[in-house]
Write a sequence for this structure.
């Protein structure tokens, strides 16, 4: 019995050290992964068809080289909208800008019914505006543009809307999975396996399937270097 307890304690200690060693800030160019105090924050792009930058944060689990991040509400910059007093009696004006307040031309704007059926689809003009005549069937408005986080919000009679698009794909309330290999004490390589993981009945088998799919698709990993904060003596 003592033998089994010793083996268990050894394995537990090994796992704890392994997890602690993973903690830190990793960065390469604009890509980063920060793991500390039971929370992970990521900012990555360029995995396969992923063309926009993906950001998120949340509590994490790490085992068998799989990092699962259960994302929460993102604390950084993200797309938002502001209702303003209507400027036209018979129409709704939607103005789309970036976080720098410059107009975004060509932003796809969908005016939707209660059941999400598109009643009208259009794009913003040079001033970042699109004007929609009042229609009681319109209940929601969706704004999207390549390279930006999209947004859906409720339409409101007598209101115009200012939409500020953030240039990231913000992941919230979804489980993100990375496969991580620790190349040395200062370097890890990461592969994004899923940005909306569904474990199903057997989480281990689901993760193995994701890993095999990435290997079959020859997804190239990203190498991130651990950053150290220098400590200066007096």
């Amino acid at each position: 019995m003592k033998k089994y307890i010793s083996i268990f304690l050894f394995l537990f200690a090994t796992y704890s050290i392994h997890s602690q060693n993973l903690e830190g800030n990793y960065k390469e160019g604009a890509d980063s992964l920060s793991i500390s105090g039971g929370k992970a924050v990521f900012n990555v792009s360029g995995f396969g068809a992923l063309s926009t930058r993906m950001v998120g944060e949340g509590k994490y689990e790490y085992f068998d080289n799989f990092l699962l991040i259960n994302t929460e509400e993102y604390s950084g910059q993200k797309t938002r909208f502001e209702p303003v007093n209507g400027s036209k009696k018979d129409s709704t004006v939607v103005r789309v800008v970036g976080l720098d307040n410059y107009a975004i031309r060509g932003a796809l704007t969908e005016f939707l019914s209660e059941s999400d059926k598109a009643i009208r689809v259009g794009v913003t003009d040079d001033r970042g505006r699109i004007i929609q005549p009042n229609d009681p069937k319109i209940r929601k408005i969706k704004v999207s543009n390549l390279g930006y986080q999209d947004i859906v919000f409720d339409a409101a009679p007598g209101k115009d809307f200012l939409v500020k698009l953030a240039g990231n794909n913000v992941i919230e309330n979804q489980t993100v999975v990375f496969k991580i290999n620790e190349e040395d004490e200062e370097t890890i390589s990461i592969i994004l396996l899923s940005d909306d993981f569904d474990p199903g009945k057997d989480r281990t088998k689901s993760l193995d399937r994701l890993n095999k799919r990435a290997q079959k698709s020859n997804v190239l990993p990203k190498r991130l270097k651990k950053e150290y904060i220098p400590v200066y003596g007096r």
Observations:
- Residues 2-22 form the longest helix (21 residues).
